[in-house]
Amino acid sequence: MASTDKLSPRDRLLDAAARLSYRDGVSVGIEALCREAGVSKRSMYQLFDSKDAMLAASLERRVPWYDAQLAHPDPEAATPRERILYVFERLERASRDAGYHGCPYLAVLVELKNPEHPASVVARTVKDRLAATFRAEAERGGARDPDLLARQLLLVFDGASARAGAKVEDLRDGLATTTVTALLDAAGMD
């Protein structure tokens, strides 16, 4: 990774927005974002129309990283069941990090409550893609009702993520994967 001083002001702002909004919430102030990035407010407004646009760009920029975290390392060899369970194993591992605050995309949806906000649009797209992935895997795995199973899996993912992020649930005991295994069995997945 390039050192911070070699990053462009735009990249520094996007990194700062990702870091601070994840740690402190989307209401983090422009002054704090600019200070963290080492960029003037004037420069920020030359690069982005608004803080909202910067937050949305920051979330969009993290999508490849987020997707990579949840993708099975050997998708061709893994079964649909294994690919689904891997998502929850990754969630359980991530939740052990002291800096874990839950799914960044769910947090944005919960905090903003405005479906038209540019960051909400990005977050909703990411969550919808995860649901579509669950549905496709459920269908490939022979689930009786792939739509229902996908909704159930997203509910477990978001609930486990939120509770672990709020430090009210410890996922080290495999609670998420155990719950998902029961759902996969009940759905008739291979």
From TrEMBL:
Keywords assigned by UniProt, alphabetized: DNA-binding, Transcription, Transcription regulation
One Pfam family cited in the UniProt record for this chain: TetR_N
Tagged with keyword Transit peptide: no
InterPro entries: Homeodomain-like_sf, HTH_TetR, Tet_transcr_reg_TetR-rel_C_sf
Domain HTH tetR-type intervals: 7-66
Keyword Lipoprotein: no
DNA-binding residues: 29-48
UniProt-recorded name of the protein: TetR family transcriptional regulator
PANTHER family: HTH-TYPE TRANSCRIPTIONAL REGULATOR YJDC (PTHR47506:SF1), TRANSCRIPTIONAL REGULATORY PROTEIN (PTHR47506)
GO MF term (any one): DNA binding
